[in-house]
Amino acid sequence: MASRAGPRAEGTDGSDYQHRERVASHYQMSVALKSEIKKLIYMQVAIWLLLLAQMCVGHLKLLPHDQVAMPYQWEYPYLLSIIPSLFGLMSFPRNNISYLVLSMISTGLFSVAPLIYGSMEMFPMAQQLYRHGKAYRFIFGFSAVSVMYLLVVVAVQVHGWQLYYSKKLLDSWFTSTQEKKKK
Question: Transmembrane ranges (predicted)?
């Protein structure tokens, strides 16, 4: 190994210490998964802000009704989907398993459940749009049903990947906890 002050010790090229310079795989995985989950949380916050903006514009009548439609009923409980994101972010600094589990459970309750309800709520309007070509609610000239279904598809993917990576992270944390207990 090289010292900070100068060249390597005589008789070694430093390669005999490489096994000591590796980081355990579950720590590498933890860092990578935290990074991915943070990206997904930022995407979820962006979706949340879009819905919040649509609700504010719709209720405060900042734009005409034909520009931005009033929100659907599923959008109100979906606003609670910021809670799982906060739990997820709070779990990262100290690898807090409890907050991560709360984040995963509340993602199902506050994020995925409203999206399922929303897709069922909007289905008759989507069917009417498909069969008859008639839309009665618009968001900047586009059918509100089409825009909101697109948002639902993106949100389901974001939350699905977030749950998948959270489960992998939880497994990684359990692995490191079990190894610490064995020592």
Answer: 40-62, 99-118, 138-158
